[in-house]
């Protein structure tokens, strides 16, 4: 029996890297009296540091990861009823912005081993009306972007990368978030780095950058000659307080990511002898950054699958999430019942029937992935002792459940 050992959590100080560096920059902001990003020094400094870190021409800081995806979709400027292909396993913040821009999200199936959307599944969803593709690098494991980018290029449409879980993840040598037209990031409490709420977008495209910057400012182009409110848009600005914290957090990001990877490699080695659980595969040329640590539970070897394993882990106070999201995005009421603006069902009223066909047969990868995945919490503050504790808790739980089954 493994005795309980409390794991650092990203919901509180134990699992975060917030400290004096953040406090010092916050003090500067408070002392300056300028809290708005439109007049302060922290937000432009943060944007310059982000552009430099990722090696891109433009970064725009904004209020959330959802706002980041919304800015990216708004920059693409779809016509009502145009389609944006996305993935069935992601955060709702990557989907609802599509509806707010009057476009129809079309869900592509995922690879049952990684939960990442695939080029083949996207290809099956493309139509005359497709205006963009949104991919999510799930849990920080890069999608196989090469063939997805090729598909998009052949059509002349942009790829938007949702990197909320994938800070500094690499596809070959390239950082994810710099390969598509726009990279979207979240600074929410539970991400690799945090300001509580917040986010940013990255792009090398001057026109997309301007449009996103204007979009988060109620379409008012600050600093330009004869400005006007140019189109329908919201206030998705960040604040100087958030930008100050983000700058201090950004400086700590590389070390945090390295630690997450090293800790994950340690656990992966220790799980090698367990047949019933298989860590999510990472492609040989890719670097996954472990926002969480997902594994597959083989229900043929471990009866009850992820639910049974999660229950066994709970007994030794190890938290885990079977299925990650309880159901695919398209089974949530907003999509399943088309609950949008009043009773209009807009923009679904403009959708091709095939685009909103959510029949199980169309999503074998999604359903298989969700029924086999168990997600362990992961953190840059996990010590080797924490990792060893997790490994032995898993080994015990697997042994117990497989023995019971015999
Ligand atoms: C967290 C997350 C978002 C949304 O970010 P918020 O800052 O919470 O709005 C979007 N996509 C993915 C994949 C996420 O993990």
Q: How many separate helices?
A: 12
Note the run of SSEs as H and E.
Answer: HHEHEHEHEHEEEEEHHEEEHEHHEH
Low-confidence stretches: none
**Average of per-residue pLDDT values:** 96
CATH architecture of the domain at 13-250: 3-Layer(aba) Sandwich
- The total count of strands amounts to 14
Q: Compute the gyration radius: what is it? A: 22 Å
Name given to the CATH homologous superfamily of the domain at 13-250:
Type I PLP-dependent aspartate aminotransferase-like (Major domain)
The proportion of residues in beta strands is 5-15%
Straight-line distance between termini: 20 Å
Shape: globular
How is the main sheet built? Answer: 7 strands, mixed
Present as ligands are: pyridoxal-5'-phosphate
CATH topology of the domain at 13-250: Aspartate Aminotransferase, domain 2
Can you identify the CATH class of the domain at 13-250?
Alpha Beta
Helix content: 25-40%
Helix vs. strand class: alpha/beta
Q: Order of strands across the biggest sheet?
A: 1-9-8-5-4-2-3
How would you characterize the overall build of this protein?
The chain is α/β, with parallel strands linked by helices and 406 residues long. The protein has a domain at 13-250: Type I PLP-dependent aspartate aminotransferase-like (Major domain) (Aspartate Aminotransferase, domain 2), CATH 3.40.640.10. It is 36% helix and 14% strand. It is built from 12 helices and 14 strands. The protein has helices spanning 20-32, 42-54, 65-76, 96-100, 119-123, 145-155, 206-215, 240-271, 305-315, 333-336, 364-372, 384-405, and strands at residues 58-62, 83-87, 104-108, 130-136, 159-162, 170-171, 174-175, 182-186, 199-203, 277-279, 286-287, 293-297, 321-322, 373-376. The protein has a 7-stranded mixed beta sheet with strand order 1-9-8-5-4-2-3, with helices on both faces. A hairpin with a 2-residue loop joins strand 6 and strand 7. Helix 1 packs antiparallel against helix 8 and helix 8 crosses helix 12 (384-405). The protein is globular. The protein starts with 19 loop residues before the first helix and ends with a helix. 50% of the residues are buried. Bound molecules: pyridoxal-5'-phosphate. Pyridoxal-5'-phosphate is lined by residues 64-66, 90-91, 93-94, 136, 162, 164-165, 186, 188, 199.
């Amino acid at each position: 029996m493994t005795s309980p050992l409390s794991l650092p959590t990203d919901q509180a100080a134990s699992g975060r890297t917030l400290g004096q560096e953040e406090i010092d920059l916050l003090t500067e902001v408070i002392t300056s009296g300028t809290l708005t990003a439109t007049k302060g020094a922290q937000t432009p400094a943060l944007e310059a540091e982000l552009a430099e870190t990722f090696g891109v021409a433009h970064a725009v800081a904004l209020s959330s990861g959802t706002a980041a995806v919304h800015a990216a979709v708004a920059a693409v400027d779809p016509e009502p009823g145009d389609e944006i292909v996305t993935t069935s396993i992601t955060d709702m913040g990557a989907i609802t912005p599509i509806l707010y821009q009057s476009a129809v999200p079309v869900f592509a199936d995922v690879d049952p081993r990684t939960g990442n959307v695939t080029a083949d599944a996207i290809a099956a969803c493309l139509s005359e009306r497709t205006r963009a593709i949104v991919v999510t690098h799930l849990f920080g494991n890069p999608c196989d972007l090469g063939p997805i980018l090729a598909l998009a290029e052949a059509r002349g449409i942009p790829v938007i990368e949702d990197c909320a879980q994938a800070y500094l993840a690499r596809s070959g040598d390239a950082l994810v978030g710099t390969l598509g037209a726009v990279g979207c990031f979240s600074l929410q409490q539970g991400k690799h780095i945090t300001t509580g709420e917040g986010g940013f977008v990255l792009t090398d495209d001057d026109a997309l950058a301007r449009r996103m910057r204007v979009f988060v400012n109620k379409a008012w182009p600050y600093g330009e000659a004869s400005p006007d409110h140019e189109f329908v848009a919201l206030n998705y600005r960040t604040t100087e307080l958030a930008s100050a914290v983000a700058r201090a957090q950004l400086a700590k990001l590389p070390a945090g990511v390295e630690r997450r990877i090293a800790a994950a490699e340690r656990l992966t080695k220790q799980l090698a002898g367990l047949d019933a659980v298989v860590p999510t595969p990472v492609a040989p040329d890719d670097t996954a950054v472990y926002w969480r640590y997902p594994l597959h539970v083989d229900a043929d070897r471990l009866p009850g699958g992820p639910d049974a394993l999660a229950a066994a882990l709970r007994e030794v106070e190890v938290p885990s999430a079977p299925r990650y999201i309880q159901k695919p995005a398209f089974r949530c009421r907003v999509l399943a019942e088309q609950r949008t603006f009043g009773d209009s069902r807009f923009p679904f009223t403009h959708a091709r029937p095939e685009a909103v066909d959510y029949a199980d047969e169309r999503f074998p990868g999604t359903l298989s992935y969700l029924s086999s995945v168990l997600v362990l919490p992961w953190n840059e503050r996990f010590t080797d002792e924490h990792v060893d504790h997790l490994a032995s808790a898993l080994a015990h739980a697997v042994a117990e459940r497989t023995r019971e089954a015999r």
